[in-house]
Amino acid sequence: MDLYPKNSTPHEEDNKVSTHIRDYKQVGAYYFQTDGSQMYRGSVRDVFWHVNDDAIKLYLSGAQLHGLTIWKARNNAIIQMGWKPRNVSDVSVSKLRIIHNRWIKPDAYVSSAILGASPLYGDPKEIDVQRTMQVKIDDVVCEGICAALMTIAPMQNFDLVISNIHFEMLHNDTEQRLGRSVVDMDAGEGMDNYTPGQGNSTLGIHIKNWTIGEVEVDKKNAGEDRLGQLKNNPMFDGNWSIE
């Protein structure tokens, strides 16, 4: 569902459409690009989506989402915040339940992660530090073997708070590396989400109370070769936190 106002502007965030979705079921992700609904200003509550592509598209301000159950197949992120620089605020996601995820390989362009911000389509690549993506995500449970927490290519500033996340298990195959989170890095084939100029942005990402199995992820065990498998560009070391 993509709605366009009669008097459109070049920026999606100027869209004044509002929607309220409740008790909506989507089953049968037969196509590679079977997406979830785009989120406009308004609310989404108590939904079940079987998707093959982006499930939750956070492209616009003012979306309040609660009670989402996602059955995820193999193409792209569950929460998508990328593809172009965006100016988004007053967005929240709470009580997200991921009952199945089935990525087949790590990918930074079509993000193989729970949270994704894919790089810009086409050239030249654009970084806009006048824009900020401001999102709060709380109460996330991923059942079974889970892929990476995040794969992010910053194209604007981020003000992202992710709290109370529980993975039953994080994918830990040392060859596939599906559990590895990559932020603003060239991490090898298929995993390059670095664009010159990203270092001018603010990567305000704050992770609070993330557990994998019975173990809490903190600064000491969050690294690429440790429990959390987080690979972040060192230039952002002072911008993000985990506690």
Automatic annotation (TrEMBL):
Q: What positions does the domain Glycoside hydrolase family 49 C-terminal occupy?
A: 128-242
Q: Which InterPro entries match?
A: B_solenoid_dext, Glyco_hydro_49_C, IPU_b_solenoid, Pectin_lyas_fold, Pectin_lyase_fold/virulence
Q: Which organism is it from?
A: Fusarium agapanthi
The cross-references to Pfam families, in alphabetical order and at most eight, read: B_solenoid_dext, Glyco_hydro_49, IPU_b_solenoid
* Domain of life, source organism: Eukaryota
Protein name (database record) = Dextranase
The residues the entry assigns to the signal sequence are none
Gene3D superfamilies assigned:
Single-stranded right-handed beta-helix, Pectin lyase-like
